[in-house]
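User: I'm putting together notes for a lab meeting next week and I want to include a structural view of one of the chains we've been expressing. I don't have a solved structure, so I'd like a prediction I can at least talk through. The sequence is below, exactly as it appears in our construct file.
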Amino acid sequence: MRVQAPFGRRLVRVTGVDDVGAYRVLHAADLDGPQPWPGQFYMLSAAERWGAGEDERPYVPRALSFLGAADGQLSFMLEDVGPGTRRLCELRAGDELWLTGPLGSGFEEPHEGRRAILAGGGVGIPPLAAWAGVLAARDVAVAAVLGFRDALHAEGARLLGEEAQREVATDDGSLGHHGLVTDLLAAQLDADDHAVVYSCGPPRMLEAVRALCEACGVPAQLALEAGMACGFGACFGCVVAVREGGYVRVCVDGPVLDAARLDLVPAH
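Assistant: Thanks for the context. Below is the predicted structure for the 268-residue chain, given as structure tokens.
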């Protein structure tokens, strides 16, 4: 599903910041923006000190899926992994933020009475958290399997709220299952494969989810990550090959794609 974005970027104000484990949750007032659909994303940049000034590296805006949207307020989950995300993590209440969106296409509801399984990793949690709330409101059974680096990062699992039954895996075994999130997903599908899998996370994880669902004959929708400079499909920096031939632009034709359209999920 796609909600059309207003033309151009908008200047909004940061209303608050929360720390959740290794992540930062940024809240901003977007009173004039439309209600986005889970899986869609925004292009964000700080209004001040974003780059191109003296001794500053110029940055393009960062593409981020929204975590929540209610009562004219948007929420985003961030991790400081480089200069662009670091600048966004520096923002505090009262600072101004440029945003464009919502952009792209989001998730589609399960059919044939299938339950929903959300499979996420790290900063792939936000679109799944937004989707869990919508599905629960429509009485769809929801389970979530979530993978993280360690227990500190795994605190991000609580952002899903109580809408989904959650299982957690960590790479170092400091919380939950010691191993991959796809171990938990495989167990879920072994128990009941009448499901649709919704997934977002790093490319290697998404490829493992895609391959597992294909082997099990289970439909899956993948929210892909890609390097985006514009968000409108003009720069062709986020294209991926599809089985029917040719390429699609993740920012316009995705970021959510039917897994059956892909032979593999490419690395960045």
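A couple of points you could mention at the meeting. The chain has two domains: 10-103, 115-225. Helices lie at 83-89, 125-137, 151-154, 181-191, 203-216, 250-253.

User: Perfect, that's what I needed.
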